[in-house]
Amino acid sequence: MFKKILVANRGEIAVRIIKACQEIGIKTVAIYSKVDKAAPHVQLADETINLGDPTPVESYLNIPKIIKIAQDIGAEAIHPGYGFLAENPDFAQSCNDVNVKFIGPSPKVISLMGDKIAAKKTMEKAMVPVIPGYHGVEQDNAALVKEGKKIGFPLLVKAAAGGGGKGMRLVRSENLLEESIEGAKRESKSAFGDDTVFLEKYLDKPRHIEFQILADEHGNVIHLFERECSIQRRHQKIIEETPSPVMTPQLREKMGNAAVAAAKAVGYTNAGTVEFMVDGDLNFYFMEMNTRLQVEHPITEMTTGIDLVKWQLRIASGMKLSLKQKDLTQRGHAIECRIYAEDPSNGFLPSIGTLEKVEAPTGPNIRDDSGIYSGMKVTPYYDPMLAKLIAYAENREESINKMIWALSHYVVMGVTTNISFLKTLLKHQEFIKGNITTHFIDDYFKDWTVTKKGLPIDAIIALAVYDSIHSKKQEIVRYKETDPHSPWKHVGRWRVGGKGV
Ligand code: MV4
């Protein structure tokens, strides 16, 4: 096993990786930009190196800087986390070039999966079902229009270098096909520097269901079941759960086998995720493979009891998978909610500011993976995800209720968060019934805004008067209300100058 690794990331995932290393006796090196000087990942690591300028290209995306640090400090491996350099084949190659182990798959596999056309072709050969469409080399408009007519409408034009909905166009009729192809090419060129597109039959009301896989460097591959990730806003996942409400043992076995076949077809190593779309008749199709640890990995850990980060470290150090597919089981139900510093009443724009007070709920089987603390500044430099809250219970209904409870007790003061929006989603009848597709939020929450913008003015005045009478300290503390007539009885646990508990 490694003795010392560098964690090339920040925030909650850097914390998650560092803690896993501590538990198995690996020393960690954290890197940080100027604005992250006091961040939790920096506090926890054994050694820390300042990258300076907070802009991503100068810090967490700067390959030469990070490689040099790893060499200087004698790190045997680099864990990239997710985002930043996690799926950058040049970074993985640069690690290999200087004999620092990249904790993830090979640069070749990362490149292959980054090319959505090449990935689909590889999967077709491996007998993994892909969405019917045109994935060919002919790229002139006339050829693409001809292929599009064969597929029929509606269809989607997608960018080969894409993912996440960029460069994607829905085409409902033939007369709009050519301009949509041109539009998709233009967008893809400017976003990815590549205008290769492909065409696909449009699946109506699809679900996004993905399978976690682990593959060692000795040819062993297992899957750790599915995650249902259909609840997304603008291609950003916000609620994930496992098991999927539509999964059956038969479908799970078929999709799990397909995921393992997909990984084997490319000689995959380390942790990865095979994404599928599942239609209303439960047909499933390969979408893409994510060659990294994912944000939503904790729900798989909660239901399988397997620590995915530790397996990434073991696999990268050359160990064999000791887990056998037949011995793996899913137990109970886990949900993850992503808490963002964004304002649902202001078009979900990022909310920047200081986190005056942060307190996460605790309890049996509630997990808070966060990289935030009271007093921390939320800057515009990085992703506005503050924390991931995970609830685990015996069954889906209890897991939903537990999550609603936990969200209600998550205190974030100073910036606006999406917590109220998450609770509203979890309470929706169609969510509770498990009737969710990738269009859930558009279908039911298109123009959703927080209607209750705050307390009524008379309540605020009552609170202010009450506090000015009863308090001397001007400090915000957690308060246990004992006065049965206090207006605070009705609004929460936090107040200025109260007696702390
Ligand atoms: C689709 C689709 C329907 N049919 N492909 C969106 C992002 C990219 N990863 C693929 N996406 C989709 N591809 C076919 N043939 C619907 C979507 C889609 C979607 C997929 C996954 C999660 C959320 C989504 C939200 C809207 C559309």
Average residue pLDDT: 93
Question: What Rg, in angstroms, do the CA atoms define?
Answer: 24 Å
* Total of helices: 16
Strand content of the residues, in percent? Answer: 15-25%
Distance between the termini: 44 Å
Percent of residues in helices comes to 25-40%
Ligand inventory: ligand MV4
Could you explain the architecture of this structure?
The chain has an eight-stranded antiparallel β-sheet, sandwiched between helices. It has a five-stranded parallel β-sheet with strand order 3-2-1-4-5, with helices on both faces. The longest helix is centred in the middle third of the chain and has 17 residues, at 249-265. The chain has 16 helices and 25 strands. Helix 4 (89-97) runs antiparallel to helix 5 and helix 12 (396-408) runs antiparallel to helix 13 (419-426). It has four domains: 4-103, Rossmann fold (3-Layer(aba) Sandwich); 132-201, Dna Ligase, domain 1 (2-Layer Sandwich), CATH 3.30.1490; 207-444, ATP-grasp fold, B domain (D-amino Acid Aminotransferase, Chain A, domain 1, 2-Layer Sandwich); 457-495, no CATH class. By secondary structure, it is of the alpha+beta class. The structure holds ligand MV4. Ligand MV4 binds at residues 131, 156, 163-165, 168, 200-203, 206, 208, 232, 235, 277, 287, 438. Ligand MV4 binds next to strand 9.
